[in-house]
What does this fold into?
Amino acid sequence: MIRALYTAASGMNAQQTNVDNIANNLANASTAGYKTRRAQFQDLLYQTMTQPGSSASQQTTVPAGLQLGLGTRAASNEIIFTQGSFTETDNPLDLVIQGNGFFQIRLASTGQLAYTRDGEFQLDKNGNVVTANGDTLEPQITVPAGAQSITVASDGTVSYTLAGQTAAQKAGQIQLAGFQNPAGLNSIGKNLYQPTDASGDATVANPGGQEGMGSLLQGYTEQSNVSIVEEFINLIVAQRAYEANSKVVKAADDMYQQVNNLRQ
It folds into this structure.
């Protein structure tokens, strides 16, 4: 009974983590470029009463054995990098990546590179293309004052025209970064990721190139890939699993109480 109490408690803790993960997904349902996370669990160590395959006699072995599990734990919450839906904005600095890849962002606070799927860019006072937090797009792209129109081609070429001129001038080239295992990226908030040993180093290339990078689409934003219906279903399942484990705690406690009352 004591074993059942701790095992059921581990199940309740695991489902609490599951609900926390679902809550974060739902909270970011309207966050541009957000990628949903899926909680994954592992069973804990087993207490072996009889080892499977051990000898039952000189001629026979135990076919199944007796092993009692000690519960579960949250192992990871993997990032699911499926494509989100596109929303048209007509803002020339709103970009989406059609396919694989991340925008490269130079963090002003540390000087390090971070990566994002959020393509909602703006211009700062110097004409640099920056994020909503003021961090610059890498490679740096500067649009001069007085530019009449800004065009971003599918291959990442950024060009503009000036008043009184018909010929477009090139402002820079957007490059994308890819990772062997994007699920291993470290989320640091503000729609940004940084590489880890699990993700591997970034591979940088032009959009739509031979390295498998997606192409760019101007005037759109990529919405989160959170399915609200699916998250609510997961929430109901997690709630029922939590309730089931709580009933095991109550049942084990009732059984333990009956054992304590045997002397009476």
